[in-house]
Structures are given as C-alpha cells and as structure tokens.
Amino acid sequence: MTPPIVLIADLRHYEGQTVTVRGWLYDRTDKGKLQFLKVRDGSGIAQAVAFQKELPEATFNALRTLPQESSLIVTGTVRADSRAPGFPGGYEIGITAAEIIQVADAYPITPKEHGIEFLMDHRHLWVRSSRQWAILRIRATIISAIRNWLDDHGYLLVDTPIITPTAGESTTELFEVKYFDDVAYLTQTGQLYNEANMMSFGKVYCFGPTFRSEKSKTRRHLTEFWMVEPEMAFFSLEDLMEMEEQFVSAIVQRVLEKHRMELSILGRDTAPLERVVPPFPRISYDEAVELLNKLAAEASDPAQQAALRITWGNDFGAPHETALAQQFDRPVFIYHYPTAVKAFYMQPVAGRPEVCRSVDLLAPEGYGEITGGSERVHDRALLEERIAQLGLNREHYAWYLDLRRFGSVPHAGFGLGLERTVAWICGLPHVREAIPYPRMLKRTYP
RNA sequence: UCCGGAGUAGCUCAAUGGCAGAGCGGGCGGCUGUUAACCGCUAGGUUGUAGGUUCGAGUCCUACCUCCGGAGCCA
After folding, report:
1. CA dist., res. A50 & res. A35, Å (int)
2. Considering only residues 116-135 of protein chain A, which place a Cβ less than 7 A from any atom of strand B?
3. How many Å from the CA of A425 to C1' of B4?
4. Within 10 Å of residue A53's Cβ, how many Cβ atoms?
5. In this structure, what are the phi and psi dihedrals at residue A444, rounded to the nearest 5 degrees?
6. Which is it for strands A176-179 and A182-186: parallel, antiparallel or unpaired?
7. Do the Cβ atoms of A320 and A294 come closer than 8 Å?
C-alpha cells in the first residue's frame, strides 16, 4: 500500500503510521552512521532520522551529501519524541525510503547570521527561512481577519483604481506613469473613490496596494504598501473611533488565536497583544501637546527634552508618537489635529476651525501611527473653499465635488497601513520584513 | 534632501603605516540522538572605485559610488 502524503503540520495525527512528506531539506546534522534531516514542506518543519543500517546504501549516501534546500520526498514511520525539533515539533519521521528531486547548489543563506543587504538581495530565498515564514503566515491571517471582520459587519468591498488622473492628497509623493500620450499617477489612496462608493453602498472599503514616492528611509516606510480604507455614511468621529477599536482588536485577537507557534518563532512577547481590547484611550491633540511638553520638562536628558518639546500647531514626529504611545498599555487615539497639518477634506470642528475632526491611532511599543482618519467635509461650499485655499486645481476635483451636490451626508473613514500593523503584531524592527517583496527608496530587486 | 556609520574570502567579521587572518559555508575524512552539533585536513582575496602622500597603504588624505541607521514626510 502506498503511504499517505501528509503535511508536517498534521504529523501528530499519524503516530505509528508510515507516511510520505514532500518538501525541502532545511538543515542537516551528520553523525556518521546516523543523520538528522530537518525537512520543511510549507506547513512546518520536522526532523527525519536516517540510520545507515536501516536504509539502502545508495539512499543513505545520497542523503549524507545532500545540500541545504534540496528538494526531496521522504517516507517513514511517525514517532513521538520530545527531542524532535521543528515546527510544530515533537514528532519525527524514521526514514525508510527517500527520493531526491533536485540536488541544490550551495545555498547562500546559511544558519549563521547575515547582513540585511545580503538578505534583501536574496529575498526570493529568504522567504523560506522560518522567521520569514512565520511573518508571512501572520500577514495572511491579518489580511483575512481584516476582510472577514468588514464583510461580517456590513461593509462592502468596492475596488478603487490603481492608475489615477490626479493626486489624492499631496502632489509631491506621486509616482508618475506614462499613459499613452498622457501622464497618470499610481494611487496613494482610494479614499476619494470610496466616498463616491459609500454613497451607493453605505459602508464600503477598498484594500490594495498604494504608492508613495517619498524619499523616506526609516523603519516605518515603504514606497509600495498595502492599505485598507473603510468609509462609512452617517458616521461621526466618535462612531469612527468605536469602530476602529473593535476592528483592530478583532485582528489582534485573531492572530493570537491562530498563531501562537509563529509568534513564538518570532520571540514576540504576547502580553502586550493580549491587552489589545476595547476601549482604547482617547486624547485630544491639545492634551497630547500638553502631555509631551510635560514629559519634556520631566526628562533629564537635554536631547530627549528637545525631541519631545512641541509647539501647538506642529504635527508629531516619530519621537513624539513613541513617547505618547508609551504612556498607555494599548493603542491610543489622538483626535482633533490642527486643520493646517491635515488633508483638505477633513471637517473642521464647529466653532473652532483651527482644528479638525481627525483621528490617528498610535500602536504601542513605538510602532507609531497605524491608522489615520477623519470626518469628511460634506458641505459643498466649504469643500470648494478648502480646495481654493490650498491652491488645488478645482477641475481635477469636479467629480468629487459632485458628491456634495447629490445627497451629501456626514461621513467618515480611515486608512490602516497593513505592513505597520504586521510589524507591530509580529514585533518586527522594520516594515521591510512585513511584506513579501518590499519596495523601498533603494530597492526594487528582486 | 540633511546628519551619522560601514564597505576586506560565498557570508559574518579581525588585522599598531611593515608577510591579508578567523569562524561559518564549500570540498575530503571521522563520529548512532543532533538541536546554529563536534573533530581533523583542504581550497578560497584586484581589501567598493579613481587619484594622492610614503621606502612601504586594508590602514593616512581627496573625490566619487554603494549600503545601513536616524531626521523630515507619512500609513
């Protein structure tokens, strides 16, 4: 009888049985007449043990010289052994037969340490490493948690275009593309289209790649990143914060349910993630400025004092966000930012137009802004005034202004940066590991 | 764009202005319970590029290139 082909993740269900596993050689320890092979198959990593006297000489010798990442099919008996390494581990395969598919060339990524440039140049191979494997599995779960939560709560996925005629927000950070005899731009947000779609479906979201040609070189920036943007009719800023905290908590809790193993591979302390449940603290921009200046006054280091001190009206920098987030044990909302530092479509606060109905959500542990959103201006005259004030080309926004002519309603929405969320939940030092093939200022390869 | 740092073997790094080295990886050999195994042998170099100083430069000087970290900007 042909043994069943099984996944390493399911090995524990086959104790005592003979099974076949198909995959790649992750690592090998040669002990002479005994060899330990770590085999990975996409679902996990398991140890397979080869004894010289239990195998044909040709098979044993072939395994003995097999390089890392060679592809192979092994058949053997599953046994429980607490010494067996791997993910999930605890079970190993006593090899009775093996077939080598391809003998790999010398594999560049060894079990020792490597520099980031080397790893990024070999990203197409690096994705096989257990740490990257864990991150990308969690990323996939975060994506499905985002979609499932929105789908289950009455939001309709409505795709927005990637090639756009004009800027969504600012003009400096657009990637220009040749569009026949004209120019067009890669999208930096689906929001304006979301506002049109929201008028048809009530609650909508778009979820796709966005592009920013910012010359940013920090651990929080990519030039191509994924963003989910919900937009809701008849939503106030308070409705928005309530929705966001439910949404973000659900994503984090879903990862905790499904990925204890991956989080442990990453060495992620899960205690801060366990605390991500509603309600999240809410502080106004005014309060945040006051808090930062108080922290600056209390700081002993002069450099720290300078980094934290802030004048009302300025936007927060990375050190400000980190310091603010450190004051709380879960994500914190900062609302009512100065109108001048935010986009033209954000609704001014009634009776206090110098601040607007905007809200950012700062992740804990120094991961910074993971969402940014607002109530939108729904009055046509005010929107026209804002467009004129900022010197934007009114013609480009004709269709957007139409939305204020035909049944305009108060509404709100936000964008959540996928890679920053993945980096935060996984505890990564840099967003470049949070996406399979990062696009950055200095990298488009591979 | 600005500030700082680094470019030496396939990788990670040493080397006082005086013979360019180690560990890992590769190759050969040994080892029946390894967890980044261990032991022996072995091959492997235009020291980022171009100039300069010097009897002599990986090391000092100038320019450039590349990457990394941070800032600004942002999700």
Report:
1. 5
2. 116-118, 120
3. 30
4. 7
5. -130, 5
6. antiparallel
7. no
Cis preceding linkage at A446, omega within 30: yes
* Cβ-Cβ contacts under 8 Å for A192 (sequence gap 6 or more): A168, A345, A400
Domains within chain A, CATH numbers bracketed: 8-102 (2.40.50.140), 123-281+328-434 (3.30.930.10)
* pLDDT score at A168: 54
Q: Whole-angstrom Cα distance, residue A218 to residue A215?
A: 10
Cβ(A288)–Cβ(A265) below 8 Å? no
Instruction: Name the DSSP letter for residue A281.
Output: P
pLDDT value of residue A391: 80
| pLDDT value of position A60 | 93
Structure token pair of residue A408: 């305009």
Burial of A107 (0-12, 13-18, 19+ CB in 10 A): middle
State which residues between 213 and 272 of chain A bring their CB within 7 Å of strand B. 214-223, 225, 227
Which nucleotide is closest to A86, CA to C1'? B35
The answer to whether the bond into A353 is cis (omega within 30° of 0) is: no
Confidence at residue A171, expressed as pLDDT on a 0 to 100 scale: 59
A318-CA/B3-C1' distance, Å: 16
Q: Which two tokens stand for residue A153?
A: 């709560």
Measured CA to C1', the nucleotide nearest A108 is B10
Task: For A79, list phi and psi in degrees, rounded to 5.
Answer: -135, 145
The Cα A354–Cα A62 span in angstroms is 74
**Residue entry with tokens 């993910």:** A87
Nearest by Cα to A107 from A28, A21, A8: A28
Structure tokens at A13: 């269900």
Q: Is the dihedral of CA A300, A301, A306, A312 positive or negative?
A: negative
Ranges in chain A, pLDDT < 70: 167-172
Residues shown for chain A: 446
Give me the pLDDT at residue A170, please.
56
pLDDT tens figures, A70-114: 999 999 999 999 999 999 999 999 999 999 999 999 899 988 889
A364: closest CA among A247, A252, A256? A252
Distance of CA A31 to the CA centre of its chain: 41
